Amino acid sequence: MSALPAQPVWNVDAVERLAHEVGGVVRVDACGPGIDVGAAILPDGDFLAPLPDLGIIGASGEAAAAFLHGQLTNDVEHLAPGMAHWAGYCSAKGRLLSTMRYWRDEQTIWLTSARPLAQGLTKRLSMYVLRAKAKVTDQSDGFAVFGLCGASLGLLAATTLALRMPGPDGASSSGAAHLVGLPGLPQANGTVRPRCLLVVAADQAGQIWQTLQAAGTPVASEVWRRTEVLCAIPRIVQGSYEQFVPQMINFESVDGVNFRKGCYPGQEIVARSQYLGKLKRRMFLASGRGDVPEPGSDIVADAGGEPCGQVVLAASDGAGGFDVLFESQLAAIEAGGVRAGSIPLTLSNLPYPLKAID
Fold first, then answer.
1. What is the pLDDT of residues 42-93, one digit of tens each?
2. What is the DSSP-derived secondary structure letter of residue 219?
3. pLDDT at position 4, please?
4. CA dihedral in degrees (277, 281, 285, 288; nearest 10)?
5. Which of 162, 194, 200 has its CA nearest to residue 181?
6. 191 pLDDT higher than 90
7. pLDDT value of position 125
8. CA 120 to centroid of chain Cα atoms
């Protein structure tokens, strides 16, 4: 197993400044720093959340695209401006060190990661730049990241910052401001509520937050994390670092892996998982009642009582329960129920179809 980044760190002062700007309180959990502000449950209408637990990494230089293309699981060289995709960064053993949303503007390719891992990931990537004309930097402290849910809120952000409202796989950039599309939040009636990330210069955060509050309800960072869980989009954090091959957490099914591109660290193992036999592990969506389980904690099979998987990401529902993404042996799911520690889990349908493993 590769060594974890030295201590998972972030700039405490920068996070506290953001909390002050939005009128919230910093709360640290297994996913990193969050901010408690506004509602602790999913509102019915549009809402916005501060996301200090997301870091921002920038790659610049004329060879930046080619360099990242050789490091990540998805196609970076052919990424068009105005598009956004998922990618993974793997160890040589094919285990995910990070999941990332990436897009580009005229000068830089931008990537998100769990903020506690951003510094270490930047250092690791920089080690492999060698003579390539590329530079990778952790720019988390220079930006504020907000999650926006709802069409009117996204349009207000776009209008305010002279950006284009992106679709789920789109991105728009103007100066230091970026609006990045995300998969929509599934609704009971079969529709989805648009979601996007807003990335702005840190010194603009307070002004932008005040403007957007006119069109949406402020919510805590963990409420946004719950939207990630309900959209079944995995995020690698400290507790899940180097635990999963991409297909184990459905990453190829959200288009985070390109099997036609060239080599990258762990590519042979990822490809072997795709083409040589049936995958025996997958990621599932479920809910439970009780304390929120931490990433990397055990999932236990009712049949036999043995660990059969791990928690990927979980978030409180604000009413004494939680939603959780977990990875498990398929055989354990087929044999009966599973638990997060001692808490029984109720399975839910994934919001996307799983792609066939050849």
1. 999 999 999 999 999 999 999 999 999 999 999 999 999 999 999 999 999 9
2. B
3. 52
4. 160
5. 194
6. yes
7. 96
8. 17
Pairwise CA distance, residues 152 & 73, whole Å: 33
DSSP state string for 143-203:
EEEEEEESHHHHHHHHHHTT-----TTBEEEETTEEEEEEEEEE-TTS-EEEEEEEEEEGG
Q: Which two tokens stand for residue 252?
A: 């190829």
Q: What's the pTM?
A: 0.95
- pLDDT score of 1 more than 60: no
DSSP state of 124: H
Give the closest residue to 350 by CA, choosing from 195, 183, 112.
183
Q: What band does 39 get if pLDDT is binned at 50, 70 and 90?
A: very high
The sign of the CA dihedral 329, 332, 334, 336 is negative
Residue partners of 209: CB distance under 8 A and separation at least 6: 21, 22, 48, 50, 146, 218
Q: Kindly give the pairing relationship between strand 343-344 and strand 171-174.
A: unpaired
pLDDT at 139 over 50: yes
By the 8 A CB rule, do 161 and 150 touch?
no
SS3 206: helix
Q: What distance in Å separates the CA atoms of residue 204 and residue 202, rounded to the nearest whole number? A: 5
Q: Which amino acid is at 51?
A: L
- 346 closest CA partner among 355, 358, 336: 336
| 3 state SS of 14 | helix
Place of tokens 């230091």: 176
Domains along the chain? Answer: 12-230 (3.30.1360.120), 280-348 (2.40.30.160)
For every residue of 36-66, DSSP letters joined together read E-SBSS--SS-EEEE-TTEEEEEEESTTHHH
Do 111 and 56 contact (CB within 8 A), yes or no? yes
Instruction: Please report which helix (H) or strand (E) contains residue 136, including its range.
Output: strand 135-138
- Return the closest-CA partner of residue 120 out of 32, 29, 34, 8: 8
Would the pLDDT of 107 be above 90? Answer: yes
Q: DSSP secondary structure string, 292-317?
A: PPPTTPEEEETTTS-EEEEEEEEEE-
